[in-house]
């Protein structure tokens, strides 16, 4: 069933049409890669779907409820409870151990620290991070830090995970490992994944690829998933 849908998205910055009429649908356990040249509107699309930027026209629906017209407070509460985010790098708090970085979204929702850290620890083994719970981000490799970021995106059991160039700072081999874990763990959790990437090999791990060009969908394709 459809988790996230957007219809007729238009976003203008002055004379620039960042988005010029875009439709997107993502289902449960579905993963969608958004590709396209620099300046084509990928980030704008991700930010509108995630309730960070408001569209000038069109609608965004989360399980059939419109979210594009919510007030700022309800929108930020919704982002915290229903969405998870993975960025390119630099998203972990350097002074906190890995397990507390992962626990943060739960603590922001009001879960007591001990309980939040206990739930956070359960994500370390599935992400190949066993034994790294007390490491500070500065003591982790790039790939390990991104896997901690994935754990943090999933810990509150969101409906949708948004990833913006999640492998942008990693070498090829590490990129493959990270995107494989990101897609598989997100699917197991039952969430949908929307990922912006420049890397076709990374995009190929998603169920579908959306090509954006000049604020429009140029092409979409479906991979055969084993
Ligand atoms: P086919 O090539 O079999 O006719 P399509 O090209 O219409 O199929 O679509 C391929 C896949 O991409 C389908 O799973 C479809 O649901 C999905 N899709 C099509 N348009 C969009 C969109 N705007 N956003 C997200 N997914 C889309
Ligand atoms: P991409 O992520 O594909 O590189 P963006 O969504 O960032 O593309 O940008 C699409 C277009 O909108 C570009 O022409 C960009 O310069 C413009 N744009 C994006 N954000 C802003 C902004 N906050 N202010 C002005 N122009 C913007």
TrEMBL record:
Coiled-coil ranges per UniProt: none
Protein's recorded name: ABC transporter ATP-binding protein
Keywords for this protein: ATP-binding, Nucleotide-binding, Transport
Species per Swiss-Prot/TrEMBL record: Streptomyces bobili
Gene3D superfamilies associated with the record: P-loop containing nucleotide triphosphate hydrolases
GO-annotated molecular function: ATP binding
Any Pfam family the entry gives: ABC_tran
PANTHER family: ABC TRANSPORTER RELATED (PTHR24220:SF685), IMPORT ATP-BINDING PROTEIN (PTHR24220)
Domain of life of the organism encoding this protein: Bacteria
Domain ABC transporter: 4-225
């Amino acid at each position: 069933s459809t988790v996230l849908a957007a219809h007729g998205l238009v976003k203008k910055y002055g004379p620039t049409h960042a988005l010029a009429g875009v439709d997107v649908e993502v289902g449960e356990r579905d993963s969608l890669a958004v590709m396209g040249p620099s300046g084509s509107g990928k980030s704008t699309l991700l930010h509108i779907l995630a309730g960070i930027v408001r569209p000038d026209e069109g609608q965004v629906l989360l399980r059939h409820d419109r979210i594009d017209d919510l007030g700022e407070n309800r929108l930020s509460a919704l982002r915290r409870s229903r969405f998870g985010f993975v960025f390119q790098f630099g998203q972990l708090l350097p002074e906190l151990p890995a397990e507390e970085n992962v626990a943060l979204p739960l603590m922001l929702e009001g879960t007591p620290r001990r309980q939040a850290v206990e739930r956070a620890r359960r994500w370390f083994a599935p992400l190949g991070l066993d034994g790294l719970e007390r490491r500070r981000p500065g003591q982790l490799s790039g790939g390990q830090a991104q896997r901690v970021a994935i754990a943090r995106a999933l810990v509150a059991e969101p409906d949708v995970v948004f990833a913006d160039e999640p492998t942008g700072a990693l070498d090829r081999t590490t990129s493959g490992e990270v995107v494989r874990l990101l897609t598989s763990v997100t699917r197991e959790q039952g969430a949908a994944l929307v990922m912006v990437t420049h890397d076709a090999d990374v995009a190929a791990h998603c169920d579908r690829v959306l090509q954006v060009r000049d604020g429009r969908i140029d092409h979409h394709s479906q991979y055969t998933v084993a």
